[in-house]
Amino acid sequence: MSKRLGRGLDALIPSLSVNDDDKVIEVAITQLRPNPYQPRKTFDEQSIKELAESIKQHGVIQPIIVRTVMKGYEIIAGERRFRASQLCGNTTVPAVVRSFSDQQVMEIALIENLQREDLNAIEVAIAYQNLMDKFKLTQEELSMKVGKSRSHIANFVRLLALPESIKDNVSRGTISMGHARALAGIKDLKVQLELAELIINQGWSVRELEEAIQKLESLKDEDSNDGKQAKSKAKKRDPYIESLEESLRERFKTTVKIKQQKDKGKIELQYYNKQDLERLLEMLQYMA
After folding, report:
1. In what residue span(s) does the ParB-like N-terminal domain sit (predicted)?
2. 156, exposed or middle or buried, with CB in 10 Å at 0-12, 13-18, 19+?
């Protein structure tokens, strides 16, 4: 059996092919509706235009696969052909009618896109979560259906807990799946956002991000030990100092701490690698 597919889907995917014995009908475009379980939310407009040009010249060579629904048909496979046919002004599309359950439709849509690598990491995560929620599947059960490991499913689903701005960047490809996985392991929202900004602005690799996270964890452990000793005599921080810290964080795009003792103190700027240190030094020299 192919490692890419679960047992149920091995049987489902071949059923999307059109055979000589199949009855092909012309379905009015107005009677067709897209698959509501389609995990792909964005389509490459240029590729749709190119397909529309091909359809103008040669017609729709491969019929789409549909199922019967109230007041028409629902597209199971072939949404790009449907969109391209609309674009070039066709009023009908050749189609083959098949019978599928909702769960099969969701699974087919997900597998089709995964095989073509059409989905970004967030779309995959949402598709996995939707399948589990709608059909009460565990991660283990879903992993068997789609032919992926349970840890693979878990790694994607964890991405859904990331802040919206980071998920948007993952969807656009400015933050990779590897970066997103590392960020998902951080509990501090502010740190997540600061590191995401450094990934984008400094072009950090996944390894550089992981090294930065390790350093932050080490600093956190040190601060935790210091905090235990000072906790009993801790005082409410000066709002002016907190506001100043926030302004410096925005200015230097990194974690800033102001430690005050009566009329003196120190300002700490964190850097995460040599390139980040050089960036901070250049900014400080410019301000001098």
Report:
1. 25-114
2. buried
pLDDT band, residue 288 (cuts 50/70/90): low
Q: What is the pLDDT averaged over residues 175-196?
A: 93
Q: Could you tell me the residue range of the domain that residue 81 belongs to? A: 7-104
Task: Give how many domains the chain has, as a whole number.
Answer: 1
Q: How far apart are CA 81 and CA 35, in angstroms?
A: 13
CA end-to-end distance (rounded Å), the chain: 67
Q: What's the average model confidence in pLDDT over 217-240? A: 62
Query: Would you say residue 165 lies in a domain?
Result: no
Is 20 part of a structural domain of the chain? yes
Whole-number Å distance between alpha carbons of 263 and 250: 25
CATH of the domain at 98: 3.90.1530.10
Q: Does pLDDT of 11 surpass 80?
A: no
82 is a domain residue: yes
Query: What pLDDT score was predicted for residue 225?
Result: 57
Do the domain assignments include residue 88? Answer: yes
Rounded CA-CA distance 5/10 in Å is 6
pTM for the predicted model, two decimal places: 0.60
**Residues 39, 126 contacting (CB under 8 angstroms):** yes
143 CB contacts (<8 Å, ≥6 apart)?
A: 6, 149, 150, 152, 153
Q: What pLDDT was estimated at residue 42?
A: 75
Which active-site residues does the annotation give? Answer: 79
DSSP result, 71-84:
TEEEEEE-HHHHHH
